[in-house]
Task: structure prediction
Amino acid sequence: MKITKEWLIQHRAYENEGIKFAKEWPEETEVTESSLKKAKEMGINIGWIARALPLTTEAKAEFERVWRVARDAFQISRMVSLSEYNVAHAASRSNANNSYVAAPWAEQRGIFEKAETEHYRCMDVLWAKYESDRLPAIARYNQAVSDALIAAILATIYEGQET
Result:
């Protein structure tokens, strides 16, 4: 199967994707694993190709299976990171609250403000750690979904053919 700029227009690809496509492939390109990966690297959403085909029942089922596994793995990773953040947050909040309770009334406000400042500084550090812990999980999810989508598109296009 070949994709041309006209095919993109006919299947209502976004204009910016047509422009990117035409820069790389002025005439047309064969739909292959390498051309799909190249399109993805260029920022072209290959998902619309799957919608335009549409995918075969078998290819769609396999894509959805892989997507569910990737989604669940990402959610587990996210929940672990978030629970670590929440535990640290609770400990920091408790330390902030406990720091001023035993002090004389006149000193409590100043102690509380210092403790709050330290608490928020800790939270900024912990949130940055949570965000950085998520990045590899997001990358694994995106890669798994992208690979599965490419496989589903190719399986649909070349169904019953030797590739």
In short: The mean pLDDT is 87. The radius of gyration is 25 Å. Helices lie at 5-10, 15-24, 33-41, 47-52, 57-101, 105-157. The CA atoms of residues 67 and 145 lie 6 Å apart.
